[in-house]
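Q: Here's a chain of 153 amino acids. Please give me its 3D structure as tokens.
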Amino acid sequence: MPATVFHPVAEVSNTWVNEFWRLVVGLLAALLAGLIFGHVSAWLLLSLSAYAAWHAYQLYRLHAWLHQGARTAPPESDGIWGEVFHGLHRLQQRNRNRKRRLATIVDSDEILVMLEGKIAERGTHQQLMAVDGWYAQMFTMQLDEVDATLTEG
């Protein structure tokens, strides 16, 4: 039996397809109501306003969650917003883990940098950063990766 492989692109496109159909069904319901009760444009406007209000509410929830420090679980949601909340939560967890690992290194009494089986650099974090050698380059690169994941999107 072949292993199931997770494909985020396929899942995201499925989410977008579902969101598209949610919008189409809402517009068709508004069109039908407009044809039955009259004022088709008013019903379509009402439907689109409700759809926009729902997205504005989801943005409000995202904003509130992020300003809590986002250490709590993300708000429950479905569709596109569920993907957004879940993706941001995963990024935050990954960044916390990376920062924790980097902090462990920074707080070490002595750091040994080995290249090709030999000690290439030795010292505290501050000393090795001042030398601007291999350690400093790798540490800066790791720190940049943590910062970059905060702005990915």
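Q: Can you summarize the key feature?
A: The first strand starts at residue 111 and ends at 115.
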